[in-house]
Design a protein that fits this description.
By secondary structure, the chain is mainly β. Helix content is 11%, strand content 34%. The termini are far apart.
């Protein structure tokens, strides 16, 4: 461990490991600093691993005590990932999330349909709107991705670095860009990724 992380890095890792075993017993490793808000509304599955500076937040928009941020088993979250839930964010098993990813089902204001918010009001005075997010099993989310409210990402899919996901992504797809678009789908007959 010392050879890989150095003395100071090994001490930080040991402190993070002790913190994990005291406060998040079913997690594999929570690296510090780590920020969790409204823990009672968050479920962390067995085997969670985080990088440095991660932030998990639950802000129920109704007076409820239910879980609104659910992480499945063996989820790996790298450095500086920010996940904020107001209604429901579900992340399945074996999901890998790269660094600097933002996932939120919350939005300051309503910008479509009836009674949209005015640009003359201050953003922080606008009522929060929510729309659930589902990330299914075995998804890989690349560096710097933003996943916006109301999105479902299908099983086994890959989201390319710096993508902004604004619409559903089907199972076994690769999506890239801003907004993210499907560029490949897995063909189980040929066992290969095919361009769309």
């Amino acid at each position: 461990m010392i050879k890989r992380y150095g003395i100071l890095g090994s001490i930080r890792l040991l402190i993070s490991l002790i913190y994990t075993k005291i406060f998040f017993r079913n997690a594999r490793l929570i690296r510090l600093p780590f920020d969790i808000r409204n823990k009672k509304n968050i479920k962390i599955g067995k085997g969670l691993t985080t990088g440095f500076g991660c932030r998990l937040e639950a802000y129920p928009q109704k007076e409820i005590s239910e879980l609104i941020l659910i992480l499945g088993e063996n989820v790996e979250i790298n450095d500086y990932v920010h996940i904020a839930a107001g209604e429901k964010i579900f992340i399945g098993d074996n999901v890998l999330i790269a660094s600097k990813v933002f996932i939120s089902d919350l939005n300051h204001g309503n910008y479509k349909g009836k009674n949209p918010d005015s640009p003359l009001s201050t953003p922080n005075s606008r009522k929060l709107s929510t729309n659930p997010i589902i990330i299914k099993d075995n998804v890989w989310i690349g560096e710097g991705v933003c996943i916006m409210p109301g999105v479902t990402i299908g099983c086994g899919s890959v989201i390319g670095a710096l993508s902004v996901v604004t619409k559903d992504i089907p199972d076994y797809s690769i999506a890239v860009g801003s907004p993210a678009k499907v560029v490949k789908e897995y063909d189980f007959e040929s066992n290969s990724w095919k361009r769309v």
